[in-house]
Amino acid sequence: MALLKKIPHTYTILASIIVLCAVLSWIVSAGEYDRVVSDVNGVKRTVIVENSFHRVEPSPQTWQVFASLLDGFEMQAGIIAFLLIIGGAFQILNDSKAIDAGILSFLRSSRRLERYGIMRRLGVNRIIVAAVIILFSLFGAVFGMSEETLAFVIIVVPLAISMGYDSITGLCMVYVAAHVGFSGAVLNPFTIGIAQGLSDVPLFSGFEYRLVCWVILTLFLIGCVLWYGEKVRNNPLRSPMYKADEYWRKREAQAEVRIEYAASRRAWCIYFLMLTALFLFSWHYPQTEFRVGAAAIRFCAVPVLTALFALLGWLGLRKSFHFFILVILAFTILFLVTGVMGYGWYLREISALFLAMGILSGFAAGRKTDDIIRLFLAGAKDMLSAALVVGLAGGIIQVLQDGKIIDSILHALAAWMYDAGKVTSVGIMYGIQTLINIVIPSGSAKAALTMPIMAPFSDVVGISRQATIMAYQFGDGFTNMITPTSAVLMGALGIARIPYETWVKWFGKFLLLFILLGFLLLIPTVLLHLPGF
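The structure corresponding to this sequence follows.
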């Protein structure tokens, strides 16, 4: 029985899906939609021409299954390179023991809060877990944080372990939180913005009900994580990751070794070098325009961050180079948010930011150039397994595209919606988007593919286009947290050292609850008169 219950290795699962997709290319009739380049909210997007589906010459896949790994690497090259850079940068950071020192200091400070009765009743650890989840869920809801979570998994998982939880709890605090926020997005330009633009709906309209949905989904996640986390704290053996988390517990035990707090001259040199660079950036970027919905807010973000860095960096160095490195990490995050929301940063700029963080942290810790390179290579090597998984996941998409069956599957699924009622129709749309997300995890790509078809369908069955957009929104978000074609999921699991098969067994039941909750939240969009709907 134990053998029957054992789930195959991640590579086996992905390779099997590639073979299945190749078989489908022999069975499913090949077809395509015509596409045109359209301007959506100032961005050029390739969209489907309505009623343009037509049959094409079949392209059954055979030997291509063996080329799919290379094709997947080419398709997901950005995320793969990002993974390797993040792994190398944080290996340098971890070698400095700055995160260990910060976690120990944080836990000592939080324990002091237990002197207050209300804090003891609420539980300091519970407050920390809830606060971190709200933060990352907000990031996902506002600017679509997804790939960026990879940089934080390696920070939050050790924090969760140190509080008596497990790596699954840590992954939920950051990766799952961001994707729940992504699902209940209120201002995400990569999903809501594109979908509304393609559906001829005012940009970011329906904000009020989306905000309600985000609050409900986030509170539900907090409840689930705290319920599971308390079970693990009370009995660590109940965690499916108890043995595998020995890696993180050893790392925590090593952090208990006495840390020598000091600030070298090199760390002060790095401080003044960074301060000079930030002053130049402040002069070059005196104002930053943040777009929130249809509104634009101008703020002197870079000069303010520079002034804060000057103060906090100096205070950190007065204590130890460990805390100065933590200041570097904190301002890396702040500049990440500023860059994403104010300047449209993506993988290229974010990778450069974290690489600079790693190198500067290494020099601030007193490491030589050769040591920094050695540490970077070691960190990148740790990410190699995750990179292979990402390549295989990309190979699945490539086989479906080359086999010319993605559009055929979409066309067949969409035909189900014509003769259904309002609630049933929105439910079918939701189900279709959920299924499509398994093979097309990119939210913006799926919006460009499906909304030009789904939006006209909503007019036919008498439901608002906003309801259709929300069906896309929920369908796009929830299954991202379990689909093997999601490069971000595979990368996050690789960093947290959680096997995919373990994650599926654990998260599957929660996924069903989220999908059900999403459907319940869709019902008011077709039965009530909501603002913007």
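The chain has a mean pLDDT of 83.
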